[in-house]
Amino acid sequence: MTLSPTGEVMLRLVLRSRRHLALLESRLAALQARLPEVSVVTVNLQPEHKAVLEGDTEIVLTGQDDLAMPFGDITLFLRPNSFFQTNTAVAAGLYRQAQDWTRAIAPAMVLDLYCGVGGFALHCAQAGALAVLGVEVSPEAVRSAETSASRLRVDHPDVGRMEFRAGDATDVGTLDRGLLGSERSMVVVNPPRRGIGPDLAAWLEGSGATHVTYSSCNVDSLARDLAMLPSYRAREARLFDMFPQTSHHEVIVLLERETHSASTQSRSGARQP
Description:
- The protein is α/β, with parallel strands linked by helices and about 270 residues long.
- The protein is built from seven helices and 13 strands.
- It folds into two domains: about 1-65, no CATH class; about 70-270, Vaccinia Virus protein VP39 (Rossmann fold), CATH 3.40.50.150.
- The protein has helices spanning about 20-35, 90-105, 120-125, 140-155, 195-205, 220-225, 260-270; strands spanning about 1-5, 10-15, 40-45, 55-60, 65-70, 75-80, 110-115, 130-135, 160-165, 185-190, 210-215, 230-240, 250-255.
- α4 links the parallel β8 (about 130-135) and β9.
């Protein structure tokens, strides 16, 4: 179950087979009459006995197939197969932090890798980035991000250009460094627990991006990855207790390329009396 700040709920039932599908469909009206807040109901088929919770087949039983998740004046539209942060209130703070850094840096281009349903991407676009490109391996998450971007444009027609692509963020052969251009640019990474790894770290080193915003759910892989980014220095970091009463947490770090930092300080010093 996923609960939206609006009070609406998405209910997903994971079944071994279609055996009970007709029974569930026959009880859907009674379920929604008793629990009207349940606006999206789906069945996921996972026929294999393994650690992976979900299968490839998702059957939507309701007319509505996405759940609106508002974060201030930005609303993300979550589809059933899309990953989303478990703690919505803390996720809102995480997005606001990235948005504040984006507003201060004012990048012309933001490349959001592992973009999911577009949480970071949309907040960066609203913060003034002229163009935002999100890359995510899940086509369903990309569809969610595209829906959210189109709704954001309706409310904020002056927002920067937003584009989302389905692809593996770690497949650096498909990433064009030219996307970042020669102006101030930022790469946002929000990888799984294993981190970004050496290939993507090497790509970032040679990318020319002036800033990297790294959101991590594993400080061990974060430390390994930062060691592989010697051209960048950590300027700010913030800890988010995403999973209260557990040892797990989220850390977001703002990295600045050393050469850019030096030139910024030089220009700042030149203005001193």
